[in-house]
Amino acid sequence: MAASPATSRLAAPRYALASSAKSRFDRRLAKILAHAVNVFYEKGYEGASMRDLSRASGMSLAGMYHYFESKEKLLYLIQRHTFSTIVEQLRGKLDSTDDPEARIRILILNHLEYFLANQKAMKVLSHEDEVLKNGFGAEVRSLKREYYRICLDVLDDFKRANRLGFSSRVAVLSLFGMMNWIYTWYNPRVDGDAAKLSEQMGDIFLRGIQDGKSVRKSARVN
């Protein structure tokens, strides 16, 4: 897909939302995307219009179309930033240890910390998972596959270290299922912060994938 002028101006959105962004445009872009998250959260992607997005951001409709040719572009920027940030943070944290169990717990904590700090964005991503098409969708799917492969490698390392026989694919996708839908029930007064929640979720998950081995052994003995 050929790059449009708007695409060229926003060639590196992962940096546009970074806290260290210095340019006026980067700061403006961060605010626009934050407003876009709120609109998509409240109205859903299909229910939101470019007029809604321009009104929420305080930018004129003409200005909105000048920088973002469609609402799909805004959703793309939100998704690309989210997944690139989660992947980059996870890679850095995993470098701190070679312990297989600790790496699983780091994976869970990293995901939940980002999720709980960006609950509206994560809900938007969960509900609008298949909206993006063409080049936008391909790039986001590539980031998701990278994240999945990292998590799969972490689970494979744990499986080899403990000589377990569970399916790493099923384990990773089940873990994502545990983590991605907590916005439907999470209550900080009851469930605690990301550290407390990740510890409990890690305990449940690790017991589950380790108990599978003893269950199969018992079945063969009997």
Describe this entry's structure for a reader.
- The chain has 222 residues and is mainly alpha-helical.
- The protein has a single domain (5-212), classed as Tetracycline Repressor, domain 2, CATH 1.10.357.
- The chain is built from 12 helices and no strands.
- The longest helix is centred in the middle third of the chain and has 29 residues, at 134-162.
- It is elongated and about 60 Å long.
- The termini are far apart.
- Residues 1-22 and 214-222 have low confidence and may be disordered.
Largest sheet: none
> SS-based structural class?
mainly alpha
Helix and strand run? HHHHHHHHHHHH
Global mean pLDDT? 84
Summed up, the domain count is 1
Q: Using only CA atoms, what is the Rg? A: 20 Å
- The level-1 CATH class: Mainly Alpha
User: How many helices?
Assistant: 12
Unreliable segments of 5+ consecutive residues: 1-22, 214-222
Q: Note the gap between the termini.
A: 60 Å
Structural features:
12 helices, 76% helix, disordered N terminus, mainly alpha, elongated, Tetracycline Repressor, domain 2
